[in-house]
Amino acid sequence: GTPLKAADTNQCRETRNRKESQLPQKRFQCVFEGVSKAGESTFLNQIYTELHIIEGGAAEVNEEHEVRQIEKASRTADRAETSIRPGDIFKASPGRSHPIRAVLTKGVAGIGKTVLTQKFTLDWAEDKDNQDVHFTFPFTFRELNVLKEKKFSLVGLVHHFFTETKEAGICSFEDFQVVFILDGLDECRLPLDFQHAEFLTDVTESTSVDVLLTNLIRGKLLPSARLWITTRPAAANQIPADCVDRVTEVRGFTDPQKEEYFRRRFREQEQASRIISHIKTSRSLHIMCHIPVFCWITATVLEKVLKSREGGELPKTLTQMYIHHLVVQAKVKKVKYDGGAATDPHWSSKSREMMDSLGKLAFEELQKRNLIFYEPDLTECGIDLRAASVYSGMFTQIFREESSLYQDKVFCFIHLSLQEFLAALHVHQTFIKSGINLLDEQQQKSRRSKVLKKKPNLHHLHQRAVDEALKSPNGHLDLFLRFLLGLSLPTNQSLLRGLLTQTGSSSQTNQKTVQYIKEKLSESLSAERSINLFHCLNELNDGSLVEEIQQSLRSGSLSTDELSPAQWSALVFILLSSEEDLKEFDLKKYSASEKALLKLLPVVKASNKALLSCCGLSERSCGALSSVLSSQSSSLTHLDLSNNDLQDSGVKLLSSGLESPHCKLEALSLSGCLVSEEGCASLVSAVSSKSSHLRELDLSYNHPGDSGVEKLFAAVEDPQCSLETLRMTFLSFSPSDFSQLELDTKSVNRNLKLSNNRKVTRVSEEQPYPDHPDRFDDCPQLLCRNILSGRCYWEVEWSGDVYISVSYRGIRRKGDSKECVFGGNDQSWSLICYDKGYYVRHNDRITPTSSSSSSSSGRVGVYVDCPAGSLSFFRVSSDSLIHLYTFNTTFTQPLYAGFGFWSSGSSMSLCPL
């Protein structure tokens, strides 16, 4: 079929008729779900579910395992990102001056890139979109690869693939708006050389296909044409950045789109709802359903399982899902191609041989990192091409048999994950049958295992597989490992009875593997490696580590001080796998400490907003956070670091992350972080960089100096700078704010001794104070007489272990429960001063302040703005106030100053101002 339609030009009108204009619709209105020829075709408009396409940053290489990329995308898929309709792929975004000529769309295998281009072409052909376009020419690199040795002109290449254009006598495209689609750059075997390829501007001049393409992509050949190139992420950098006007990324299905797919696929809503709720119960299945082809596999399997055993157990793990898929395909072959009955055993000696061959091919090509293979590769593994074609649910011949156009035949599995499953099946079977561990090269060479007297121990195979997977820098064996371990479960082996040799694998063997994985989790592994090991434990039906942490989280008894490395990894896994998006991560929920931040860094990276205020963070944390901000996969847009002792050295490290082109941060709070003029200079440099997205910056309660303030405000006024809002709150007192406090002698505990009504010391002998209902009888505390109203400021010299507080008058006086202690309830707010540093306490929640200063004495300033609901504490140095912490609340009753003394000899003195 020819993707052209009647255009408003005499040439087109004269040379084509209505029949020709309908050809693209016929070609693109049907889609074979999953793979070509894998059953009946479906109308594209009937099954098409909108994909999540986003504006995608730089055209860079990403060599991570694509399932890792999908896991990361699954955490962010429903967040506020600019989504693009397929029909709008060439439409410039608001504010963009120049038109879009070339678009590069990235996406992992099976995510729907090809279907996207088909939908674009169909909507164009049906006059729904892009009516200014006269011709759309879709090519795939698979098709173009086989023309490697041939020469064409651009016009000749179009005539070769779209013969109707030749019949219509169209030999020039300068007067038309043309779209070229180049699908599957990652499969390109042509030497695209953008540095040295000859220049070509004539559409009728013949040359090699690679030179044609490089000049078309460069914009030298037919510069008026629009270009849409699709690729998997690992090959995205083959096209120079200056040749691309827009980079987009197909994220696959968002959670609502997954549901829409299954509701379209299953007309019975009850069945659709059951399938959707089942998928949601399994995190690994839910993640993989971001990939449309996996949705197809899942739908095919669950439909068969529900039909064959009403009320039976549905597959919960990836291994179970692929085992069922294999069984479904075997049954289809038995009935459809072999003329058998549905009740016949579905594994024959021939089909077992074929599975052995497919497994061998899958494993050997996985080792070479190949996803696409040619006829000799199949022959080498003993695969008959005609026999292979009946396994279309796993394996597809990419090029159409009926066309004489294609001399070479190219093959691939319908998805990388299926190749990994078959590879794992092959390794498992080989080990069980012969004792040969295909993951051990030395053993393969010597074939010593053929004379092994002992029965092969699966644990040794698993141990080797875990080690090999952990060595892989990009996780290319992650899924393979999950499948290999899952195949050892007797319940899974029974599903493949007739194909798989039953190992009688003992629970003791699997327990050894579980223990080995837990030992690995105790080592210093990257977050991605740890997460995959938890998925492995899930395949082995062991959720003990995760359950242990979840139980502590549910009961509120999680103590991060006592967590082992494996338990920290479990916590990270739980937080990253939670149903709710990581829209806001508050470190204080787990532990307000630098250690906790460094352990939970992957969670910060996956979050939209990170609340890290008052967590005792230092320069070390800034270095770690800088790497998060610089990461291509970071989701962080809002970061609150207020009231941490970061100083200029920490802010400089943070600024280097802010300058990264990958940094997505829009709001940053550094209030009370001891930033001076030097730190401000590095921030100005960061927010002035072209790649900066930072719109809000809070630098309140710092010491930027006149020069720092000047530079920051100049940056805000600069139209080239992204910064829109700069907060710089400073305290300025008038004499009327200074409060002369008077101690309330009726409230003083008997173990507190007063001197000149200004100094209080804790003593062991009880003082002879008369009984009074206002007196604190057990807690070594007292209140002041003055009501604090409006704005008030006072200073205190302290020594020992002192609570400097404000409180409502109604705080309990009898006993020593939390209801009596300053800061232990919702009636009072305290600054705790002692030799380990400064902390604040309210409603029995203790939080570290920004100061790392530790001393057994000091001077503190307290400022309360009652109408504004603000209470601030400061460390008083010789020449400045250093901000410690600010409570922001609503005061509902009159406030009084108060003091507590929690060790013998502790004292405080009110300072004259």
From TrEMBL:
GO cellular component labels: cytoplasm
The entry's keywords: ATP-binding, Cytoplasm, Leucine-rich repeat, Nucleotide-binding, Repeat
Region feature (Disordered): 1-20
Domain NACHT residues, every copy: 101-235
SUPFAM superfamilies, per the entry: Concanavalin A-like lectins/glucanases, RNI-like
Molecular-function annotations in GO: ATP binding
Leader sequence segment: none
Coiled coil feature spans: none
Annotated protein name in UniProt: B30.2/SPRY domain-containing protein
Organism for this UniProt entry: Salarias fasciatus
